[in-house]
Amino acid sequence: MPKMKTKSGAKKRFKITGTGKVLYAQRGKRHGMIKRTNKQIRNLRGTTVLFEGDAVKVRKFWMPHG
After folding, report:
1. Domain contains 36
2. pTM score, whole prediction
3. Which of 2, 43, 49, 59 has its CA 20 to 30 A from that of 34?
């Protein structure tokens, strides 16, 4: 039986906390900052916790050892 591997794209995008929650960087800050308001840019800083339904899929399929 082959080993289960972590998806390399998921490694870069998600982090699993000690309690099992999944953190992710917010979308919308890669390019096009000129058209976003300062409030939008400010509110998109940092990381947030993924919704639990989506987090279950990330942990199960993409990061089985996380």
Report:
1. yes
2. 0.82
3. 49
